[in-house]
Sequence to fold (654 residues):
Amino acid sequence: MNKIFNWGIIGPGAIAHKFVEALKFLPQASLQGVVSTNLESAQRFARQYNIPIATNQLNELLDSDVDAVYIATPHHAHCQLTVDCLTNGKAVLCEKPLAVNHKQVSEIIEAAKTHNCFLMEALWTRFLPHIEKLIEQVNTDTFGKIAFIDSNFAFKTEYPPGHRYNNPALAGGSLLDIGIYPIFLCYLLLGKPTQIKADALLNEQGVDRTLQALLKFKDDARANIFSSFHFNGGAKAHIYSCTGCAIHISDKFNTPSNMILENAKGEQKNIEIPFDGNGFNYQIDEVHRCLVQKKLQSNMWSWQNSLDLVDIMDQVRANISLKYPFE
Amino acid sequence: MNKIFNWGIIGPGAIAHKFVEALKFLPQASLQGVVSTNLESAQRFARQYNIPIATNQLNELLDSDVDAVYIATPHHAHCQLTVDCLTNGKAVLCEKPLAVNHKQVSEIIEAAKTHNCFLMEALWTRFLPHIEKLIEQVNTDTFGKIAFIDSNFAFKTEYPPGHRYNNPALAGGSLLDIGIYPIFLCYLLLGKPTQIKADALLNEQGVDRTLQALLKFKDDARANIFSSFHFNGGAKAHIYSCTGCAIHISDKFNTPSNMILENAKGEQKNIEIPFDGNGFNYQIDEVHRCLVQKKLQSNMWSWQNSLDLVDIMDQVRANISLKYPFE
Fold:
């Protein structure tokens, strides 16, 4: 690919730094602009990475010649910003969750259709080599049908009450931030659940500090998941099959990782899976590939996938009676 | 202790062999009789271990000078046999679950009271050194309050439809056989749950092949458990605290084991916990201690503990609408 892709970033927070780090591994990418509601924050970010445009005016970025925008703001702002970018003809890679509920995700997808613009949820895990390897492994005849997935993502935070993790107005809580990973994994391997039973420990602001869910799928497959900001539970994925085999990804299943294959006799084999960059680059590479091919969505993580994922999270929230104040 | 304790066994199956193996580590125990509905099976067992009485007539054992009876039959027979033994003045160590529901366990306890006889559920795990160590560790100031327990017991079986694991008439299913272990662990560390949400995959006979449950306890503590005869999920226990510490028992938490202590920085330390015999001997030792002290129940696993445990399992079953045909 000889084409240079000009990128803009909205929301120069922690995740945006990771994105810029990833761009370094993609010579066809050029970072052209950064937008923040806080001008100083945009300027600081721009200085650090030599970015020509630093602004608190979204139009300045939208009027520039950037091809694609990476949206890295807190969740509640994804919908409006993504629609604004799409309406102005910019391709969008938007941090997960694409938006906070099914209605918002539908609205975003409508905007992408209407304006004929590429749109993808930045579910970076989907594009990592070990996830590709996982899909390959669960599809072997030896592995057989998946019987059970046991997955979770939990770590202890000491963030103050106003932090976005704790703030219902910013769609805080563990579900949308980290619970999304085990849910994504179950959906990727088993499709949409046919039944969800969930429970949650809410924080003082009313969002889920700890979330637990039992998921039922067709063909007798089941899953147990939990997420929490309350304790250090790691990020594990255990996939068990009806033939007695298993796959274990214990070392942060959502990031570049190894995996342990276990056969029906209980014999284990560790597989190291090499990866480039910081892992974030794989999803950006997919955006580039899609743009070259003039595709509006990725086959690997389609609009329908984003709709399904948010739909599952909506169902989980209905189960624990969690509504964000703006809903 | 100079006193020799004469033991009888009812139900010479797999678990009874384990019991006899354990008796070898207890010189104060003598095995005097074995009862089976199948006389040949009793005689074969008696020949193997040089046991004087081998019979299919329970009275023969009850009329002998055995001090204590170990009941190792399938679950559905525990209640009647235990009551028969207690009524005839024999101390009873009965395999877990003590009986299949709260009503039966209450009946057994009443019989122990009425006939002034020792009674204990053979929840052998309770008496193992690593469980004592676990209790000690979770009670340190450093560990702090328990936030979450993630525990399970699952293995794949290929038993035929008539096997007791699959048979509702024998109170089959994963809950009473192996789900009892993670439930016991949660109860031991957190007391009785204040809320249970469960789901189950039933087999063709209508008992739980896979069981999943979310447990809620006072003080914001939570637990996720599952049990299954459907896949090889191992027997794990992860205990997470509000201070960021954790204890991991990954190598069969219900049997003699090691444990990994994790501090709030994520640093891990492996602790090997030495044990005698095959582990089963600890519970028998407790019976001997109680008999010497003329106690009717153990302080370590009391009648109330057995009542609470079966009450939790009754609640789980109510949640998944599972009734055994004899209920």
Observations:
- The first strand of chain A starts at residue 5 and ends at 10.
- Residues 5-123+279-301 of chain A form a domain with the Rossmann fold fold (CATH 3.40.50.720).
- The mean pLDDT of chain A is 96.
